[in-house]
Amino acid sequence: MTDLQPNGAVPKDRRVDHSALRTNQAFIITLLILAFVLNAWWLVAFVSAVMLVGTAFPSAGLFKAVYFNVLKPAGIARPDVKLDNPEPHLFAQGLGGVFTLLSTLALLAGLSPLGWILSWIVVALAALNLFAGVCVGCLIYYQLNRLGIPGFTRAPIRS
Q1: Contact by Cβ (8 Å): 149, 140
Q2: Whole-prediction pTM value?
Q3: Cα–Cα distance between 118 and 133 in angstroms, integer?
Q4: Coil, strand, or helix at residue 15?
């Protein structure tokens, strides 16, 4: 079975601009490291909010908006559109948003080591994706799909 249309065209909803994903990851990494250096729980909360809002409402993702409205039009970043499912990437972002939300709560509760460990997990996984192209959240999504878990409806695309 193929995900391409009968004429060989790529369905529009099955295209993902990986430059937008990399921009998102770069912002997450940079801001969470800055939060750690400044010991700023509110910056972790900001990153969490951006990630969770961008997951629930993909067109409202702030970091991706910077890519689409500033970096791409200015020619600073070029599109890297690939045949791909957006759902696993949104799941990965949502998972990161939950981790940073838990990080924020731990930091506010005075559990700083736990809070920073949770943030550094997000930094490490975003860096793995940014620099090595390995999306652990996507891998989890596809494993849940393989297991037939409701809500994880997209299998990897085969061309």
Answers
A1: no
A2: 0.91
A3: 21
A4: strand
